[in-house]
């Protein structure tokens, strides 16, 4: 009986140890089941990753399978990327697929591209794999961009002829200037501005029609790809259309404007003449009124002369004869169309 507690303690410990052993074996089985195939795949591909690394990545919610596969892909291409670097880029929100594929493509094409630079470009929002593809296979873009709603560059030569130009630009990515370099939109804007400036400086549109390559050569000499993420390989003028004669239109519009100004001036002078005519009519009526008023004073003056003895009867009849003679002459003048004297 004295050994009974010892036996009971030993039995409980054995059960506890059995449970611990069962849990340990279960955890080991789960780990082997979940990571065993990935571990074997990594080891056989010479891209070793420990089980502890896989477990820690899982705890940090990292896709272990993608890390293993992309590390194997890089290793087979001759690029050794440590798992921690891939994990860090994944945790930062980067696209491991684009980074690894861009590194492999750059190495095969002999382009210098480091893992850190590729990660920086990817985190900055650049499609690093597309950038490497454009570096290997140059890209052709339209100038102007039809997606912006404009299909031609409208410019005018010095002789006033409008030309509608359409160009195509061949560009290649410059990996070293990809960080901080401007995008394709700036390239299109600069080339468009260069074409408009050069065409506008030419004396006649015929020179543009005869030598379209002159525009391409002069634009290329301006080095418009500086401070950009691309290198301009060529600028080709694909279409030139002769538009309106802007100089003639401007002259016609100016002539029409001058005509309207002259008409307005003539109308102003006409209005002033009509106003002056009305003023003269009023002045004439005033003068006639003054004459009538003066004529009304004549009988009074004659009567006063009679009273004072300054006018005789014979003088009065002589005056009446003169008035009758004047009225007869005035009547004759009216019949012949001559205005009477005032």
TrEMBL record:
NCBIfam families according to UniProt: PRK13665.1
Recorded family membership: Belongs to the flotillin-like FloA family.
Location relative to the cell: Cell membrane; Membrane raft
Pfam family, one: FloA
Protein keywords: Cell membrane, Membrane, Transmembrane, Transmembrane helix
Subunit structure as annotated in this protein's UniProt entry: Homooligomerizes.
Protein name listed in UniProt: Flotillin-like protein FloA
Transmembrane segments: 6-33
Signal peptide: none
Membrane topology, as annotated: Single-pass membrane protein
Naturally occurring in which organism (per UniProt): Candidatus Brocadia sinica JPN1
Function: Found in functional membrane microdomains (FMM) that may be equivalent to eukaryotic membrane rafts FMMs are highly dynamic and increase in number as cells age. Flotillins are thought to be important factors in membrane fluidity.
Gene name per UniProt: floA
């Amino acid at each position: 009986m004295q050994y009974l507690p010892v036996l009971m303690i030993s039995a409980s410990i054995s059960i506890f140890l059995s449970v611990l052993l069962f849990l340990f074996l279960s955890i080991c089985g789960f780990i082997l089941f979940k990571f065993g195939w990935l571990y074997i795949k990594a080891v056989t591909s010479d891209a070793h990753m420990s089980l502890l690394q896989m477990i820690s990545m899982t705890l940090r919610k990292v896709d272990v399978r993608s890390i293993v596969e992309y590390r194997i892909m890089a290793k087979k291409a001759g690029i050794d990327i440590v798992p921690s670097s891939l994990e860090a880029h994944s945790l930062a929100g980067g696209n491991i697929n684009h980074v690894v594929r861009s590194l492999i493509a750059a190495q095969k094409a002999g382009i210098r591209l480091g893992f850190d630079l590729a990660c920086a470009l990817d985190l900055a929002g650049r499609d690093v794999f597309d950038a490497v593809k454009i570096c290997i296979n140059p890209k052709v873009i339209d100038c102007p961009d039809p997606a912006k709603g404009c299909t031609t560059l409208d410019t005018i030569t010095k002789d006033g002829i409008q030309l509608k130009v359409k160009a195509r630009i061949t560009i290649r990515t410059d990996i070293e200037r990809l960080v901080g370099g401007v995008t394709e939109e700036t390239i299109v804007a600069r080339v468009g501005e260069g074409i408009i400036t050069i065409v506008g400086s030419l004396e006649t549109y015929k020179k543009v029609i005869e030598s379209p390559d002159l525009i391409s050569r002069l634009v290329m000499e301006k080095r418009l790809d500086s401070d950009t993420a691309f290198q301009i390989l060529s600028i080709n003028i694909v279409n030139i259309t002769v538009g309106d004669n802007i100089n003639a239109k401007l002259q016609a519009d100016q002539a029409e404007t001058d005509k309207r100004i002259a008409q307005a001036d003539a109308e102003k002078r006409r209005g002033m003449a009509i106003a002056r005519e009305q003023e003269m009519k009023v002045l004439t009526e005033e003068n006639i009124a003054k004459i009538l008023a003066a004529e009304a004073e004549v009988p009074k003056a004659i009567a006063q002369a009679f009273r004072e003895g300054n006018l005789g009867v014979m003088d009065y009849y002589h005056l009446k004869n003169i008035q009758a003679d004047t009225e007869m002459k005035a009547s004759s003048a009216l019949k012949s169309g001559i205005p009477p004297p005032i």
